[in-house]
Amino acid sequence: xSSRDFVYSKFTEFYNNSSTVIPAPxxxxxxxxxxxxxxxxxxxxxxxxxxxxxxxxxxxxNVPSDVYHxxxxxxxxxxxxDKKGWIGSxxxxxxxxxxxxxxxxxxxxxxxxxxxxxxxxxxxxxxxxICEGDKFSAKTWPCDLCIExxxxxxxxxIDMLTKDFGFAANELHxxxxxxxGYHVHVEDESVRSLDALSRKEIVDYITGLGLSxxxxxxxxxxxxxxxRAAATKKFNLHDYGWNRRLKVGMSKFLSxxxxxxxxxxxxxxxxxxxxxxxxxxxxxxxxxxxxxxGVSVATWHKLAEQIKSLESANIDTVVxxxxxxxxRMNGTLHGKTGLLKxxxxxxxxxxxxxxxxxxxxxxxxxxxxxxxxxxxxLGGATWGPYKNVKVVxxxxxxxxxxLKGRAEVAN
Amino acid sequence: MMDRTLSIEPxxxxxxxxxxxxxxxxxxxxxxxxxxxxEDLTSPSMHQILDRAMERVTSAIIDFTVRPLIGAQGNRYxxxxxxxxxxxxxxxxxxxxxxxxxxxxxxxxLAEAKQATSELxxxxxxxxxxxxxxxxxxxxxxxxxxxxxxxxxxxxxLQNASHLHDAKWKLINSKLSKGDVYLNKxxxxxxxxxxxxxxxxxxxxxxxxxxxxxxISELAEKxxxxxxEHIGQAETEFPKVVVQEAFPPCINALYDAASKxxxxxxxxxFALTAFLVNIGMSPESVTELFRSFSDYNERLTRYQVEHxxxxxxxxxxxxxxxxxxxxxHNVCKNRxxxxxxxxxxxxxxxxxxxxxxxxxxxxxxxxSQLKSN
Lengths: 411, 373
Hints:
The structure holds two protein chains of two kinds.
Chain A lengths: L2 H14 L16 E5 L5 E5 L4 H11 L1 E7 L1 E3 L11 E4 L1 E6 L13 E4 L5 E3 L14 E4 L4 H21 L7 E5 L4 E6 L2 H4 L3 H12 L19 H5 L9 H16 L2 H6 L5 H5 L1 H10 L11 H15 L5 H5 L4 E3 L13 E3 L9 H4 L7 E9 L2 E3 L2 E3 L2 E9 H9 L3 E3 L2
Antiparallel strand pairs in A: 1-2, 1-3, 3-12, 4-5, 6-11, 7-8, 7-9, 10-11, 10-13, 14-17, 14-18, 15-16
Helix pairs in contact in A: 1-2, 7-10, 7-11
Chain B lengths: L14 H6 L4 H7 L15 H17 L6 E4 L2 E4 L2 H18 L2 H19 L4 H10 L4 E3 L8 E4 H8 L14 E2 L2 E4 L1 H20 L9 H17 L18 H11 L6 H13 L4 H10 L5 H11 L14 H6 L16 H11 L11 H4 L3
Antiparallel strand pairs in B: 1-2, 3-4, 4-6, 5-6
C-alpha cells in the first residue's frame, strides 16, 4: 500500500465512521460549502446542502482532504460568486505560525530550491543562496513552540475582543486550526453586516496600526525655530481602548524590566530605570506624564511603540477583511496533518492542548520509514527524533509524518 | 454592552422635525395616507411641490446645499411650509434617480446630509439621540458624570467612521470600552452626516421605476445639463502614456518585485494590476507586461487581469485599493512626502504625473506596452 493510500484509507474511515460527529455551522442553509478532493486534488466549490446529515453523506462518499464553509451568509450559496446575494459574514480571525515569527525559529521547517535543489532548515529565504532562485518547496512542522507562539497571540486577541469590543467569552468561537494556529469566529448579529472597510478598522485595532499617540507623522523632527513648540507637545493617554492598553502594558513592562531590557529598546535614558516607581505612580496612575525629570516626549513615544508591539496580536490581515472567505470547517480533518479543527471554550486558551485534543486517529499503529523528523509530542506521548529509521508509530503520528513528507509506509 | 432599552422614549417627531429631516422613517408614515403616485406629480396641483423638489436638486448641484424654505416667526426662523418641504424630498429623490447620473446622486446625497448637519448642530442631545435611534443605531446618552455625551456601539460607529480619513476616526484612536465608543455631540453629528449620505445614496440607487412620465424625464435632462456645467468631468484624466516616474512608492516596489519574478501576495498582485488598468493600460498590455517578467501562468494571469479590468464576471472594473488598505496588508512601502498628503495611489499618480514631464517617461517595458487605451 502506498503511503498516500494509507492516509486516504484513514480519512475514509474517519468520514465513514458513525461515531464521527461534525458540528453543523450556524445558519447552515445560507453557507457555501467546499472541499478539496483527496486524490484528484481539485476543489469542489459553491455547494449548498439542506442538512448536515446530507453533507456528511457526501463527505463519506467523496473523502476530501480538506473541508471548508463560507464565513459569509448568502441568499443562494450555490450560485456563482456574483449571484450569491451576500447577506452578511462572521467576523473571523486566523492566527497561523506561517505568518508570525516564532520562538523556535522554525528550525524544524525545511526548504528546497526548486531550481538547484539546494535545501536548508528554518525560515524559507527570499532568494536561494546558491542560485538566487526564489521558488521553494517547503516541509513545515507543527512544533510545540510554533503552536505556543500562536496561542499567545490568540490570547491577546481574545483579551481585546472581550475587554475592548465587549463580546462575552461564550460569544467567541475559538478553534485549534488543525495545523499550527488558531481561528476565532464571532457570529454576533451586530458584526455580520460590517463591510470590508469596517473590518479593516478592526484589523488595524488588533494589530496596532495607526495609533495616533505614536504615529510617525505626528512626531516628525520639527523645522528650525519650531523646536520649542514640538518639545512642549505633551504626551498623554486616556483610559479607553488602546490608550488604556498602553498604560497597562507600560506598568507591566516597567515593573519587571531590567536596565538591560530598556537598553535593548534603545532607551538609553538611565532615569527611566532609576525612577521606575515614580513613573508608575506619577505618569501612569496620575497622568502627569510631563513631570518625570529627564523623560522626554520622545522617550514616551519609544516606550509606547515597544508596548504596542508587545500588546498587539499578529493576525492574518487578509482573512479578517475578506467578506467572502472560506474557512476550514469545525470537526473536519486538516490535510497537512490529519489533526482536527476543534473548538474549545475561549477561557481555556491557556490550558487547551491541541496536540492531544485534536488527534483524530486514536486507534492502531503503522510501520513507517521516517526520513527525518524532529522530536515531537502527539497524543500524550513524545516521539523521535528520527533519521532514516523504520519505526512502529500510533496511526496519528504515522499519518502526520506522511502528510508532512517525512515518512513513507514501510512494507 | 449597556442596556439600551431604558433610554428609548417613544416620542414621535414633530412635523417641523420631519420637514428638517425628511429622510427619517417617520416621513413614510406621514406620507402614506396621501398615497402619492408618480403620475400625480405632473398634475397642476403638484406644481409647487415639483418646483420645490427641482430647487432642492438644483441648489445641491450649484452650491452644495438644499436651502430649506424658512420664514421668521418672532425672533426665530421656522420652516415656512412643512408639508411642501416634506413631500418635496421623495420627489427630489425621484428626480435625481431619473437622471441616472452617479455624480448628481453623490452631490445631492452630500448636500442633503450637510444640510441635516447644519440643523443638527443646534439641536438638543435628546433629538439627536432620537434621530440616531430612528436609524437603528445602538446608542444612549452618556451618564451624567461622564466627560462624554453619547455612547455608541462600535459596529454603528464603524459603518460611518470607516469612511472618514482623519486619524481621529480610526477605531484604534477611539475611546472604545466593552464594545462602546464614547463620543461628544459634535462627533455624533458628524457620524450622522455619513449615515444620512449613505442612506440617501442607497435610496437613489434603489428605485424600481424604469419609465418616468415625459415631464419628469425632461426635468432630469435639465438637471444633467446643469450638472455638466457645475460638477465637471466624471473620470479623472490620466496622462495618455504611462509615466512610470509618477508611480507611488508602493506600486514601484510591487513592480520591481514582479519584474524580478518574486512572489507577490494576493493583495500586492491585485493592487499592481488594478493600478495599471486604472491609469489606462489595456488588459492586453498588462498581461503582456507580466509575460515579459518570464515565468508566469499566462492563462491565469490573463483571466485575473481581465477580471480586474471588468471584462469578466460581474463586469465591475475594480479600482486600486486606497492607501489605508495597503497599509493594513503591509503593501504600503517607502512612504514619501507626497504620500502623506493623499489617500489613494491613483491620486498620487495624478498629482505626480502632472509635475513630471512626458519626455522622462517611457521606461516601462517595451514601447508597445506603453500605450494606454
